[in-house]
Design goal:
Elements (H helix, E strand, L loop, with lengths): L2 E4 L8 E5 L1 E2 L9 H25 L11 H6 L5 H23 L6 E2 L2 H16 L2 H7 L4 H7 L4 H7 L8 E5 L5 E5 L3 H40 L1 H4 L9 H4 L15 H19 L3 H18 L9 H5 L4 H7 L16 H6 L8 H21 L36 H10 L1 H7 L2
Antiparallel strand pairs: 1-2, 3-4, 5-6
Helix pairs in contact: 1-3, 1-12, 3-11, 4-8, 6-7, 8-11, 16-18
Length: about 425
């Protein structure tokens, strides 16, 4: 428990004393910092299962970005492998988060009134510069203050924060009473707004900008750097693993190589958390909403009523383009806004309707061909071949940057095109 008492002898109102006490957990007895690590995982699987049920029972086919045939024939990884890798990333994410917060002391409360008074003081001191500033503009602030005497608050602010009628009685620790200046009501109201709403909103905005910046440049590097995409010598598939999903679905949002998952998602969120100084309860909101937004971006549906898809242009339809062979070098921004794609010239431009229609038709033909070859029975399997970073480097990508070296051997690439009917049909002029 900590105690503070602060009084000053100048004409500023004194700061109140405060007593710090540990904050009770939101869900006793689990500490808030642990809850902040658990909630994103629960949100990930909860929201994913909602989209999964919509997908399985085909509730809103009119809003699908891809058909069930595409989901089956275009992806290069089974759902079981996706679940395994996502769980592995979430384990790593939880361990990393726990390591960061383990040495933090308990969150304390009790100084809220003191912090509001600090902001009220800053507002009072800001008023001191008003006469001088207006004087530079040729305005007689003191004369204007006298003319506005019927508006006491405005008059006092124009006079440089001079409130001759605002006084209060304060009691010192020894019991002695003294008369000190007091804050105006509007100063306390504005200070309360800044402390309770503006500062937290600014923290969230900065955290979002940090995550967007971190993810954009790392994500882009993973496409431009061959080693970060797939290391042939080490036989390690980094970012290319995520692009086995040509047709994204909700619980595949965090399907990554563990190294990529830690570097791109876990580290980025951790840096934003540390720089902005989010409290444990603020981090609950930030981490959980970031997770839900990522799941929504991979859900495979473009709902007109989905608020997460309406708030920003970075939605499921936008990110789905990046998962296509012809759009893999564009739309790197994740998970909130697309300003980096706009600034860096990596935003996909042009209509994609025909490309999607070709992919749907090719997948349907593939399913029908397999059904005929197997006496009318469907074969529910995925491709084993690994898409290279430039399985995207096709004729349709002529306007995009092409790397100087092919990643996938010619034989493998040719076999992939023969089996993967969608890619072949998309590349046809």
């Amino acid at each position: 428990m900590a105690v503070n008492a602060s009084f000053v002898a100048d004409d500023l109102p004194p700061l109140p004393s405060y007593v710090l006490t540990p904050r009770e957990p939101l869900f006793p007895p689990v500490p808030d910092n642990i809850v902040a690590l658990i909630l994103p995982i629960l949100a990930y699987w909860g929201v994913s299962m909602i989209f999964h049920c919509i997908d399985v029972y085909d509730y809103f086919p009119q809003y699908r970005l891809h058909t069930p045939a595409e989901l089956l024939k275009r992806n290069h990884v089974s759902r079981a492998d996706v679940v395994r890798d996502v769980i592995l990333q979430q384990v790593i994410q939880t361990i990393a988060g726990f390591s960061v917060t383990y040495f933090d002391g308990p969150e304390c409360i009790g100084r809220e009134e003191y912090d509001v008074a600090v902001w009220a003081r800053r507002i009072r001191m800001t008023q001191r510069i008003v006469p001088g500033f207006l004087g530079l503009l040729g305005v007689d602030s003191l004369g204007l203050s006298k003319n506005l005497s019927n508006f006491p608050a405005l008059s006092a602010a124009l006079a440089g924060g001079f409130y001759p009628d605002l006084w209060q009685t304060s009691v010192l620790e020894n019991g002695r009473e003294i008369v000190t200046p007091a804050f105006a009501g509007w100063e306390l109201t504005l200070a309360q707004f800044i402390y309770s709403y503006f500062i937290p909103a600014l923290q969230f905005l900065i955290a979002i900008l940090i995550v967007d910046t971190w993810q954009y440049f790392w994500h882009r590097a993973m496409h431009l750097n061959r080693w970060l995409y797939v290391s042939k010598r080490a036989a390690v598939k980094f970012h290319s693993r995520h692009h086995r999903l040509y047709v994204p679905y909700a619980f595949g949002a965090l399907y990554n190589h563990p190294v990529e998952g830690f570097l791109l998602d876990t580290a980025g969120a951790g840096v934003a958390f540390l720089i902005t100084g989010l409290t444990p309860r603020q981090s609950m909101w930030f981490f959980t909403m970031s997770t839900i937004k990522t799941v929504d971006d991979h859900c495979g549906y473009h709902f007109p009523w989905d608020p997460l898809q309406l708030i920003t242009s970075n939605n499921s339809a936008y990110h789905d383009i990046h998962h296509q062979s012809w759009g893999i070098k564009t739309n790197f921004s994740q998970p909130f806004f697309i300003f980096w794609d706009r600034l860096m010239g990596t935003r996909w431009e042009g209509d994609v309707t025909l490309r999607y229609e070709r992919a749907r038709a090719a997948a349907e033909k593939q399913v029908e061909r397999e059904r005929q070859e197997n006496n009318g029975e469907d074969i529910n399997c995925v491709l084993d071949s690994e898409p290279g970073p430039l399985d995207a480097g096709s004729e349709d990508m002529s306007s995009q940057e092409k790397p100087p070296l092919k990643i996938i051997p010619r034989a493998t690439r040719s076999a992939s095109r023969r089996v993967h009917g969608v890619n072949g049909s998309i590349r046809q002029k």
